[in-house]
Design goal:
single chain, alpha/beta, Rossmann fold, 11-stranded mixed sheet
Length: about 325
């Protein structure tokens, strides 16, 4: 399989943000970029003007091929202007967007898709097509929200005068120690290494329900609730989780000695902690177990929570 970064482009603001992100990612990885448009995915007023951000359809021009050529031409020209050394190709693919993107996800090193913002602060609106692609892709898929810019990936300057261009924010990885996988860890470490960024690994865990009772009496009615946690038991469990996380990451530290790793064991829902961490991240990486089912979407509760509340691009990495 030839290595290539692919961005789905339909002329909308989210897809343009995804194309911009994909161009930067292709440069970081030293790979070519392909801009992909499904010919069925078009509308007479959905094009793009690089100056104003809006395209008004010429009178009588409503063919899908016209829009595909115009959108791809304008986006590729703009990206070539920004990144002169980047190899960019375009493709107009016949078929429904879901079918086209599913096929692209099989050949892409990374597939970038756009998504509208959920609200004024952060988050995504994940449509049925994007969710279906995420749930069935065999390669990593990155969701980029509308309005995402290169500057958002960089750390703030100490003076507060703006971003430190070239100094990336952390790559944040959500890791489930019950089933850590090589694909997920390899993607996260590689993403951090290519950016020269630190990798912050977040592992969420919870105390067993029995630990919510007073050790002397396992009567939930008379339990003092959360204050009744036995500090010895909870500290011991926390130490075990911390040690297990360190053990899981040790071989990867050896493979990527240049990547600074920050280990973070947290109590509670991992999705909530990852969403919080995304506010200061250049990229959030989560895993998705490959499940063969014709019914519904299967991306997992953590990935689902992160996708709907993250403030940074989210990479969903499939694994067995």
């Amino acid at each position: 399989m030839s290595r290539i970064v692919i961005a789905g482009v339909d002329g909308s603001a989210p897809s343009l943000a995804a194309a911009d992100w994909a161009a930067r990612e292709a440069l970081l990885r030293g790979l070519p970029l392909k801009l992909l448009h499904a010919l069925e995915d078009w509308a007479p007023l959905s094009g793009y003007d690089p100056m104003t951000g809006v395209v008004i359809a010429p009178s009588g021009v409503t063919t899908p091929k016209y829009w595909a050529e115009r959108i791809l031409g304008e986006v590729s020209e703009r990206l070539r202007g920004r990144h002169p050394g980047l190899e960019i190709s375009t493709e107009e693919a016949n078929g429904r967007p879901l079918e086209v993107l599913h096929a692209a996800a099989k050949e892409a090193e990374v597939l970038a898709l756009g998504s509208r913002r959920l609200g004024a602060l952060s988050g995504f609106v994940v449509g049925s097509v994007s969710m279906s692609v995420l749930a069935g892709a065999e390669r990593p898929v990155v969701l980029v929200r509308a309005g995402e810019q290169a500057e958002d990936e960089y750390q703030a300057a100490p003076s507060g005068s703006g971003p430190q261009v070239g100094t990336y924010r952390d790559v944040v990885l959500g890791l489930d120690l019950a089933r850590p996988c090589d694909e997920l860890l390899a993607y996260a470490f590689d993403a951090a290494a290519s950016r020269g960024a630190a990798l912050r690994v977040v592992h969420g865990w919870t105390l067993p329900p029995a630990f919510a009772y007073v050790p002397a009496t396992l009567d939930p009615v008379h339990s003092a609730g959360p204050a009744a946690f036995d500090p010895v038991y909870s500290a011991d469990l926390a130490a075990r989780e911390t040690e297990a996380l360190a053990d899981a990451l040790r071989p990867w530290r050896g493979k990527f000695p240049g990547v600074g790793v920050k280990e973070q064991c947290v109590v509670g829902q991992a999705g909530d902690h990852l969403a919080d961490a995304s506010t200061d991240a250049s990229l959030v990486v989560v895993g998705r177990r490959v499940r063969r089912s014709a019914i519904g979407f299967h991306i997992g509760p953590v990935a689902h929570a992160v996708l709907h509340h993250a403030a940074a691009p989210v990479a969903v990495v499939p694994h067995r």
